[in-house]
Design goal:
By secondary structure, the chain is mostly helical. The protein is 47% helix and 6% strand. The model is unreliable at 72-77 (pLDDT under 50).
Length: 131
C-alpha cells in the first residue's frame, strides 16, 4: 500500500527515535491520521504495518529491522525495531526530501540488537556500621 508506506516514512522522519517498533508506528499514525486508524481494529492495523515494512524491506531495502534476540523481550511481546533507509528508497525525490527533514542517520552500531542486564545489588544498609 503506497499511501501507508508514505505515512510510515513520514512517521520515521518526524520521530525523535531513529528506529521504532510497529506499536510505536501505530501510535504515531493514530496521532497524525486519526481517521485512517478508525477504519480497522488495532491488531489488524499492526499486522498491516508489519507487512508493509516487510514488503519495503524485501522489495528494495528501504526499511530495515533490528531483531530482538533477548529472552525477556519475547516474553514482554517486544518485537523488531524498524528504521528507514533513504538511500535505498525507490522514490529518490521523496528520499532526498526526507533526508533533509531527517538529518540523523541510523548508526551502524545501533543496527545491532544489544540486551543490557544489570545484576541486582545485594541488600544495602542505609547506615554505616560504625554509626
Amino acid at each position: 500500500d503506497a499511501a501507508l508506506t508514505g505515512m510510515l516514512i513520514e512517521a520515521f522522519a518526524t520521530s525523535r527515535a531513529t528506529s521504532m517498533d510497529p506499536s510505536a508506528l501505530y501510535l504515531a499514525l493514530s496521532q497524525t491520521h486519526p481517521n485512517l486508524i478508525a477504519e480497522r481494529p488495532k491488531k489488524e492495523f499492526l499486522i498491516l504495518i508489519a507487512s508493509v515494512l516487510e514488503a519495503g524491506r524485501s522489495r528494495c531495502g528501504m526499511f530495515e529491522k533490528v531483531d530482538s534476540s533477548g529472552e525477556g523481550s519475547r516474553q514482554k511481546g517486544l518485537g523488531s525495531r524498524w528504521f528507514y533507509v533513504p538511500e535505498r528508497d525507490e522514490d529518490q525525490e521523496r528520499a532526498s526530501l526526507i533526508s533533509a527533514i531527517m538529518p540523523r542517520q541510523k548508526r551502524t552500531e545501533t543496527k545491532k540488537y544489544k540486551q543490557y542486564y544489570y545484576r541486582p545489588l545485594g541488600k544495602i544498609s542505609r547506615w554505616d556500621s560504625e554509626d
